[in-house]
Amino acid sequence: TRPSFRMDTPSFPELGLAQPLLQAIADLGFERPSPIQALAIPPAVQGHDLVGISETGSGKTAAFTLPLLQKLDLARHVPQALVVCPTRELAMQVCEEIHQLGAHLPGLHAVPVYGGAPMDRQIRHLRDGAHVVVGTPGRLLDHLDRGTLQLAAVRIVVLDEADRMLDMGFRDEMERLLGQLPDERQTLFFSATMNREVARIIEGHSHDPRRIEVEQA
Ligand code: ADP
Q1: Per residue in 55-99, pLDDT tens?
Q2: How far is it, in rounded angstroms, from Cα 147 to Cα 178?
Q3: Atom 23 in ligand 1: residue holding the nearest Cα
Q4: pLDDT tens digit sequence for 34-58
Q5: What angle do CA 85, 1, 56 make, to 5 degrees?
Q6: How far apart are the first and last CA of the chain?
Q7: CA-to-CA distance for 99 and 8, rounded, in angstroms?
Q8: What is the DSSP letter of 207?
Q9: Is the pTM of this model over 0.85?
Q10: For 19, 75, 89, 99, which has the most beta carbons within 10 A of its beta carbon?
Q11: In whole angstroms, how far apart are CA 21 and each of 36, 42, 59?
């Protein structure tokens, strides 16, 4: 499924994105931002915390990936951005989109880290100097506990499909992960639905977040 377009949405260059990202967007053939992208990208680029609520297939991945990529300092080979996803499939998919949208960022290194795959390979990739780490909660904590993942330089964290992670029973893991991140950081929550449990974790771990909600078409 592709996000639906509205002709009154701004163009990608109007959202405050850097040239290498606009180039990748053009390469992918994205003509216009989807509604969640048009609404979420400008405040995210400006550094605000936010909660983006929009249905599956509406383009949420690029909505957080583009601001995240814009914030990286590629000269520093330490994790600066963390994306937490509910499943291995989603972590792989997000990592793939990071590589596509980051195709014109020289030396970009994004590493997926999920359960059910050998630790040693992930440890090697992490040691190679990842800028972005995308992973599932349990395996991320596993790496943290072993000291094979450092979060001290993380400046932006994305909780993707926060509602699903809570449904899957990852609340304690999410809390522990968020608790180990530097306070001086940007937090983006993306979710297809909003409920009390999602609201509670957002409240506890973000700073004056903007709420962006796209009505289902
Ligand atoms: P979500 O994360 O909301 O479930 P995705 O980010 O997976 O949705 O987006 C669904 C599909 O739409 C993907 O194949 C993605 O590459 C594509 N897509 C995203 N943004 C755009 C856009 N602005 N124009 C065209 N296609 C897009």
Answers
A1: 989 999 999 999 999 999 999 999 999 999 999 999 999 999 999
A2: 16
A3: 33
A4: 999 999 999 999 999 999 999 989 9
A5: 35
A6: 13
A7: 29
A8: S
A9: yes
A10: 99
A11: 17, 14, 16
